[in-house]
């Protein structure tokens, strides 16, 4: 098991942001780094930027997992929709592409789903029983719905 912090990376339409995350505190362990999203934001071009972010943080150990969020539907690491990002993402197994490139365990999820999980664990919804709905406004409009924590 890693003793380093996992790295969280968010892929947005104008910027790709990342930082090590302290999961006990639910906060960044270091200052966040932001790099502009490439003008042609193909999966490969975005992987190049993600690799720069990973290389920037000394705290990211080889056994530290990396979580990546994108503004699209993701199932088992494969992008299913790309309404607000380059269409070349559709059908891309971005999880495998990143794992091969970075030599880390990588999990890729929808950005609104990740925000919802964070809210359930660290935010206003922590300990809330019942229905929680989270809406994001960013590269697109996203939602996450949780009932009884699921």
UniProtKB/TrEMBL annotation:
<protein>
    <submittedName>
        <fullName>ROK family protein</fullName>
    </submittedName>
</protein>
<dbReference type="InterPro" id="IPR000600">
    <property type="entry name" value="ROK"/>
</dbReference>
<comment type="similarity">
    <text>Belongs to the ROK (NagC/XylR) family.</text>
</comment>
<dbReference type="InterPro" id="IPR043129">
    <property type="entry name" value="ATPase_NBD"/>
</dbReference>
<dbReference type="Pfam" id="PF00480">
    <property type="entry name" value="ROK"/>
</dbReference>
